[in-house]
Amino acid sequence: MNNQLNIDWPHFLANYWQKKPVILRQAFPHFCDPITPDELAGLALEQEIESRLVSNLDQKWQATYGPFTEQDFTQLGETNWSLLVQAVDHWHDQAATLVAPFRCFPQWLFDDLMISYAVPEGGVGPHIDQYDVFIIQGMGKRRWRVGDINPNYKQFCAHPALLHVEAFTPIIDQEMTAGDVLYIPPGFPHDGVCLETSLSYSVGFRSPTAQALVTGFADYLLEHDLGKVHYTDPNLTLPPDPLNVSPHEIERLKSMMIALINQPDYFNHWFGEYISQSMHSLNIESVEPPYHVDEVIATFKQGSQCHLVNSIRLIKVAETYYIHGEALDLPRPMIEKISHLHYFDQSAIAEFIDDKKVMNQFTHWLNRGYWYFVD
Ligand code: SIN
Ligand code: CO
Q1: Ligand nearest to the CA of 116
Q2: Which residues are CB-neighbours of 217 under 8 A, at least 6 positions away?
Q3: Which UniProt keywords are listed (predicted)?
Q4: Domains plus CATH for the chain?
């Protein structure tokens, strides 16, 4: 049985979301760790999975990036270190069930599930994140200190890979045990120190910067050779100071740029492609040799289930669905049937199963590996 989350979302959103941090005691009653420390260490051996080991013995902060070897783990002491593995929801089915209760949030904002294993005194040190995070305590115990938001905090590199923040006065200073959830909005300094060997699960959200959006949109225009509209001003008059760009001209220039963003065809399509890309590798295996549509229909008819790759991003912008950076060209009624399902069988697509054209389109995405069959 999967862990059940007990949060009053409307109350949480009105009082805490991007406003203030809070500990939600026993938000996961009877919490059961969905992964073992050994399994987590196993993921950190893999090339495509991002992982980090952070240690702080004698106040000397060190951080190394994976993939690790088994020997790296045998050399570790009994205190003062932690292992962090990113996007575990992409690779571990049972861990992925932990993000299910957060699927009611706009999915374009969701990022990943990071899991950390820490031994006593282990942690990543005091720092500030620029995104919202729900930290679910699993086995063990951790003491969390969270400070108030303040633009004047000084940040410094305790190690080239660790950006820390100066000492802060805590507004939360509490021990967390299995099933407690700490929500931290962007900008609030925090520090979680392990008291008893612990697993923590961070459900993280994205918050794109204006800089990333403008850059991403500009890249899209370049790639598609769009927006090559030249500046004109047929009502030009001679200015008193020819060196000056007049306010009226500045407005015209800005309008040119804004007009591009306001083109729904450009903006929506760019944003769909952009936001449906994952920031971490996914467990996608393309099918070799590719399926023929007849094989796909036969496999459904034999009763196989078709699963969507864990945490692949399937996002709808205006009337178009995007998956993993591309528009998903399937008939709308079919997408609507399957887009919210983690897996489905032929009964979900009964009205399309004998439509070769539709099934041929779906075969393309199966061959890409975005969905896969399980017998
Ligand atoms: C951790 O789990 O050690 C770090 C989580 C965080 O502070 O964001
Ligand atoms: Co953090």
Answers
A1: 1
A2: 260, 261, 266, 267, 270, 274
A3: Dioxygenase, Iron, Metal-binding, Oxidoreductase
A4: 9-205 (2.60.120.650), 210-275 (3.40.366.30), 293-374 (3.40.366.30)
